[in-house]
Amino acid sequence: MGLKVGIIGCGSITKFRHGPEYQANPYVSELVFFDRNPERAKALAEQFGGSVVQSAEEILQDASVDLVSDCSSNESHEIFSTEALLAGKHVLCEKPIALTLEGAGKIVEAQKKSQKKLMIDHNQRFTPAHQKAKEIILSESLGKVLTFKTTFGHSGPEFWGVNKSNNTWFFKKDRSGLGVAGDLGTHKIDILHYLLDDEIQEVSAFQGALDKVDEHGESIEVCDNLVCSLKTKKGRIGTASFSWTYYGEEDNSTFIYCEKGVLKIYHDPEFQLEVITQTGEEVKYKLETVMTNANQTNTGVIDAFVDCVRLDQPPQVTGEDALLSLKVVLALLESANTKKVITV
Predict the structure, then answer these.
(1) By its UniProt entry, which InterPro entries does this protein fall under (predicted)?
(2) Which end of the chain has fewer CB atoms < 10 Å from its terminal CB, N or C?
(3) CATH number attached to the domain at 124-293+324-343
(4) Tell me: the pLDDT tens digits for 103-129?
(5) Are 3-123+301-317 and 124-293+324-343 in the same CATH fold?
(6) Residue 95 to residue 170: CA distance in whole angstroms
(7) Which letter, b or e, does each residue of 295-322 get, where b requires 16 or more Cβ atoms within 10 Å of its Cβ?
(8) Which CATH class, in words, describes the domain spanning 3-123+301-317?
(9) 0.70 cut: is pTM over it?
């Protein structure tokens, strides 16, 4: 008997990632969709062969639902993910885990209490280029990591959203909360923690709403750009930039500078990983089709989550991992607002 999955929230992330990836997974037998807009849920149920319910409670109270994907907007994660765990469901929650440390804490506590699996969708850990880069860093063939720089930017959520409109929840303070820092920044903080096997401890940042406007033509309530300096527990220092205004070309690159060379991840469109040593030797890896907003490929997250439940394995991104990333994102915004260096 296959697993029954309930999906809460039927925006782009469900349409392009969760829906097709659950549908393609051989261990999933049934999908149930809920969205505040019933038409959206109906459209995805038709597209991916599932059923529709009128409330999230119907999913949470259905004893036959094994897994829940929480694809609601940021401010609702602490409600739906907490309730789903306490209702005995395994939960895959979209990032960021929550908008506040208190909200994230509720979810983590619910996981401990229920002993169900909780995984957060920090999907960059699953890409072949990042996995290979981690392997090389761990091997210390390039020596120890000294510095790094990372960026994640595209033309903005209104180009990715379901209705392609600047009337998007991503631009609303009460729903998005953290702007581009929560949307794209949280991915990059998590991947730095993962690649470096380290934690960011001190931050300083600048942010702004430089270009985006809402449906009324007003400047948006959250940042569309954030640029920062980061220092880790192990003493590495580096920079990061997150942007919703990289018009023309997406950039999802990370450079890791080591004692004997550099790793360039997602810098070259043809080679997802390049290793250039101090002596000038170059090794280039062609590992995957790079996923962008315009070109969606299987993230591997859904398959990993299903396997974690099915085989009773620890999740690859825990609630605690996501809580650490959220702490850094909140520190970045505090630094930008107070113009001070903040200790995470």
Answers:
(1) Gfo/Idh/MocA-like_OxRdtase_N, Gfo/Idh/MocA_Oxidoreductases, GFO_IDH_MocA-like_dom, NAD(P)-bd_dom_sf
(2) N
(3) 3.30.360.10
(4) 999 999 999 999 999 999 999 999 999
(5) no
(6) 13
(7) eeebbbbbbbbbebbbeeeebbbbbebb
(8) alpha beta
(9) yes
